[in-house]
């Protein structure tokens, strides 16, 4: 079978290639899945670069989520059937076939597109778990950057469903209109003069008690420019791949506190994760959750896919497609 692979850590577009590998066999509790579509997530690229929270043994096949078709069942698997379309988290998904724990897979209704299904777990689930842990009541305000990213859009959508008001920051003026076309308001572009005053005007002077940073680098300074004294900064991602910059004054004089959020070690109970996954499947089946793919690349072009994923202005994820 054809598979993406990297034998050393480094820039993804330089270290990624494709090769023929032996098709794996499912063990107890596992399922062999024929991959249809697998997204290129930022955490995938950080893992390949050796900059994520863990380092896999090399050589390694990247990819952490996909939609595919069940090919074979391992011993003891009773919740799935061969030929069933499934989505969920796994490892080594940038390959024509991959193994997954049956307990981590979710059957996908026919009404859900492959483009949405392949992104059903990682970003939407993270957004729901993050909202669960922010401790913000209906009517409260939060501010987030990367508001035009997958998680940013979902935070606005799911926050609105809970009555939470989400103020979004984007780095391009054009992205404000793009989000407005999706029904997402309260967005300000940081490349405009006077953007801080515009952002504060949107809140009407109400406290902004949580600030979610997905950028790293100068990202915290931007969300904290809008957040209230005593707010909590949540480090959710590091899209710029630069160290987090927070001035001592924010902590000493404004009472800002900082915490991190990592979906790989979720701060919610397993049974709650099951409930949230059920909500996501229902949302997708009802058409409430629709996630776009900008372009899908064959496994042979995995390095080009990694490069394209870093380009600004995308309206959806880049993905790897199976055979």
UniProtKB/TrEMBL annotation:
<dbReference type="Pfam" id="PF00107">
    <property type="entry name" value="ADH_zinc_N"/>
</dbReference>
<dbReference type="Pfam" id="PF08240">
    <property type="entry name" value="ADH_N"/>
</dbReference>
<dbReference type="InterPro" id="IPR020843">
    <property type="entry name" value="ER"/>
</dbReference>
<feature type="region of interest" description="Disordered">
    <location>
        <begin position="1"/>
        <end position="28"/>
    </location>
</feature>
<protein>
    <submittedName>
        <fullName>Zinc-binding dehydrogenase</fullName>
    </submittedName>
</protein>
<dbReference type="InterPro" id="IPR011032">
    <property type="entry name" value="GroES-like_sf"/>
</dbReference>
<keyword id="KW-0560">Oxidoreductase</keyword>
<keyword id="KW-0521">NADP</keyword>
<dbReference type="InterPro" id="IPR036291">
    <property type="entry name" value="NAD(P)-bd_dom_sf"/>
</dbReference>
<dbReference type="InterPro" id="IPR013149">
    <property type="entry name" value="ADH-like_C"/>
</dbReference>
<dbReference type="GO" id="GO:0070402">
    <property type="term" value="F:NADPH binding"/>
</dbReference>
<feature type="domain" description="Enoyl reductase (ER)">
    <location>
        <begin position="10"/>
        <end position="320"/>
    </location>
</feature>
<dbReference type="InterPro" id="IPR013154">
    <property type="entry name" value="ADH-like_N"/>
</dbReference>
<dbReference type="GO" id="GO:0016651">
    <property type="term" value="F:oxidoreductase activity, acting on NAD(P)H"/>
</dbReference>
